[in-house]
Write a structure and sequence with these properties.
With about 220 residues, the chain is mostly helical. The protein has one domain. Helix content is about 75%, strand content about 0%. The longest helix has about 35 residues. The two termini are about 20 Å apart.
């Protein structure tokens, strides 16, 4: 019982930290976009760095447990890299390898989109050691951590548990924006944040009740 509570607390903390990371990514992305970075190339660089960082670990640590790759799984990864990469874990349970492949196909698909959207604008691919590179590297690390945590949490608690925390990033962005970007925090934002937090608590409470052992007669 106690160990179960500890495990649940770790999962909750991990998801909250992921949402905090997304909030930070939103802030740093605003700075990089104001400096002229293209949203399309930002995604490409973000996914490319994530792939380069994660692929060696996935190759080494999961080389003996990685299931064979099939065209069906590749198609799922290509599709889900555009949307939600969690629910494929049943078909391909190696989380590191799965995360690396999601980042790789996200890079490929992002590059295709960028070449179409930014056609003839070769300058958008220029990147130096400045806020643009920092944003790309931060975004890459956030993708790696977020996809890995998503897989771990969804595998154990289900997609509803993970998705319930997504609005927290919006709340955190509003709070961070008021400090970092000196944006005004309106009463409506405060009320919305309170509603989100209360709703999150109710969802977690409901999930805990669902998973509690049945009472003995």
């Amino acid at each position: 019982m106690f160990m179960g509570l500890i495990r649940r607390a770790k999962l909750v903390l991990a998801v909250i930290l992921v949402q905090l990371g997304y909030a930070g990514l939103s802030i740093i992305s605003m700075f990089s976009l104001k400096k002229g970075m293209s949203p399309s190339t930002f995604i490409v660089y973000r996914m490319a760095i994530a792939t380069i960082v994660l692929a060696p670990f996935a190759f080494i640590l999961e080389r003996n447990s990685r299931p064979p790759m099939t065209w069906s799984i590749i198609a799922k990864i290509m599709l889900l890299s555009l949307f939600d990469p969690a629910i494929i874990l049943r078909s391909y349970p190696c989380q590191l390898s799965l995360t690396a492949m999601i980042c790789f196909w996200g890079m490929v698909e992002g590059a295709i989109l960028a070449f179409v959207v930014e056609r003839g604008q070769s300058g958008v691919w220029s990147i130096q050691f400045n806020i643009k590179l920092v944003a790309a590297f931060y975004g890459a690390m956030q993708s790696v951590v977020a996809y890995y945590v998503m897989g771990m949490v969804v595998k154990e608690k289900g997609p509803v548990f993970y998705s319930a925390f997504n609005p927290l990033a919006t709340v955190m962005v509003a709070i961070l924006g008021s400090f970092v970007l000196a944006e005004q925090l309106y009463l409506g934002s405060v009320i919305g944040a309170a509603v989100i937090i209360i709703g999150l608590y109710l969802i977690l409470w409901g999930k805990a009740k669902d998973q509690s052992p049945p009472s003995q007669c």
